[in-house]
Design a protein that fits this description.
Elements: H1 14-30, H2 36-66, H3 79-110, E1 113-116, H4 123-137, E2 144-146, E3 160-167, E4 174-180, E5 189-192, H5 194-197, E6 205-209, H6 210-215, H7 218-221, E7 226-237, H8 248-264, E8 268-274, H9 279-288, E9 296-299, H10 337-341, H11 353-359, H12 375-384, E10 388-395, H13 403-413, E11 417-422, H14 430-442, E12 446-448, E13 459-467, E14 470-478
Length: 482
Amino acid sequence: MDKDFATEKLYLNRELSWINFNKRVLEQAFDPRTPLLEQAKFSAIFSNNLDEFFMVRVASLKSQVEAGVTKKSEDGQTPTEQLKRIRNQIIPLVDKQQEHYLKLKNQLKKEKINLLNYNELDKRERRWIDNYFSTAIFPVLTPLAVDPAHPFPFVSNLSLNIAAFISDPETSQIQFARVKVPQKTMSRFIAIPTDYSQKDDQPIKSLVAIEEVVAFNLHLLFPGMKIESHYFFRVTRDADLELRDIEADDLMIALEEGLRKRRMGGEVVRIEVSHNMPENLLNLLMDGMDIQEADLYKINNLIGLDELFELMKLEASHLKFSPHNGSTLKELKNSQRGLLEDGSIKKEEFQSIFSIIKRKDLLVHHPYDLFSTSVEEFIKQSADDPSVMAIKMTLYRVSKDSQIIAALIRAAENGKQVMALVELKARFDEDNNIQWARHLEQSGVHVVYGVLGLKTHTKITLVIRKEKSRLRSYFHIGTGNY
């Protein structure tokens, strides 16, 4: 390395820099100018980001420590030193997030939105919740007791769990039990019907976290036993896919195997527990999952705030940002085929998007300039234009209901040469991209699975069009995912 650049002080640590970025996300939740439900959303984004950070970056550093790696980063820190600094910076951020959650609850209460604990419910609300538990939650639960005949259960990645001490009234013998809270198939927050929650004829939206409902109905899961105490915990596991440079033909198979392992999860890299969990239970959990003290995070209130995203579904527009409506670039006003088809513009006024681009390059800024009337329209017209001979593009991430995918399939069905480079290694979108790749191949699209040893992150589309006995190339080069 050049001596001028060898000084460690010149470099920022990648992991600590990322924490500072995520801190700025959380500060959007703290900003009093941010509407209340948007505050919940930013807090959820912070938590979701943090989950991925632990699953990948912290997991990687822990793997280096276990492998005995002592090589320092550019800023002069060993993996062990980085892990210590990461923990020291994250703990106060999580504490501040929890303080904000309590403040948010109080502010939402003034807006007739109550985020309640089970013990805050009145008799009518509790009766409804208990009935809901019996009919909609109880049948899917699988309580597990730990004893010599039942070893410590596997706790899956990012699952929310209840740890309880139960006792036999006859023998007074105390036993540990674990109940996994259903998440994928149920909402985190159960909404009580307004008829049961309204006060003084004022409609109130009352919501209770599902783990609270399960915890206070544990007696139904363990009949004849006494529930001594319960606490909540959540584990985060290593979810990084370690893929060697393998042949492209095997990449999809290797990824699918890696995804199966990810769903189960690797080593535990973090455990979040209720702040009041007693030492004996903590030790039981940590011994059962081979967790170190440095991986323990005590949470003061709700564990797993990433699911605050659900609050954005509430119908309370005054507690959200006004929706942003982009506009169509003025040069493309008359190049929208949909306007021609619905009669909004006359046939003689319509100009194909190719005639516009041919005259000059266009620069579009999303979301201020609509994606649907620019990039999406370009690819859709390419799929339907009989003069287009071929479409080639890269796909890093695509939405579930992608119009781009639909256009590529339509283009292949129209007899065009269509090639898509689908980056199977897009972090946490691997499974989604595998499904899209298969769907495209079945539709006649030639699919390439990325480049050996690299990730293809660029967003490029090439359209080849026959014009007056010659071939002309049209490009889209962008930074946003298709």
